[in-house]
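WARN retry 2 of 3 for item q-0093 after timeout on previous attempt; input resubmitted unchanged.
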Amino acid sequence: MGFDRTTTPSRFFFSVPTLPAEEQLIVKELFNYFYEVVFHRKEGPSINGHSCEATRDQFSSAYYQANGGLTHVCPICLHRKSNAIKENDLEHYFPKAVYPPLILHPSNLIFICRDCNETYKGVCDALQGGKKPLDRVFRPYRDTVKERAEVAFRREANTDWVKLLAADGIADEQERIENFDLQYKLEKRWSSDIAGIFEQIRTLCAGWGLPKEETRKKLREKCEDLQALSGFPDKFVESAYMKWLCETMFDAFYDNL
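OK item q-0093 returned
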């Protein structure tokens, strides 16, 4: 239960998947009851005759109070939502079917969009049924792609593609990022966003109608403005892509205007 505080994640393995099947069933039914029934009660569980208000609504309120920057974005794919509080699903990062004691563990619960939760991750288990040590995967509330990775780009056949790289260049960190991408397919999904972002930037620059060097200068200023907003999750990929166009691909980009 202390997976979120362990100081030796390389030696940490969950024991539930190794229990006999009949014991796993008992554990699963017990914790499922608390999640499916008690957690969703309006008044929450009653302990010694007193309600402790440990409810889904209370958790949601506390989550978004602590993560105010996520009220209009999914923390995984960073796609913008009109109202994330109402639109996002409560996700069990480590699947509740495999790790039932973590069903109500606050460090295993995160609100993400339905595409991330249902279309991409589903019941995918980053730990492969408890066979992989904890330090080989991201852990909610401790690790995020936005803080751990940098977005790189490559161009193939006039199409730009996203690649996630460990910001510190450490191999173990790159492994965690790749495991995370296997679950949520971020490189593929963000690559599909690039064409729309490119067209927005191209239309903006074409509208200026400026010579090449003046366009470069103004686009750099625009890039600096956008990078100042990169603290907003939904600006993360856009700001990185504009910087790449300014610094690496400007000549080819200008030819498209």
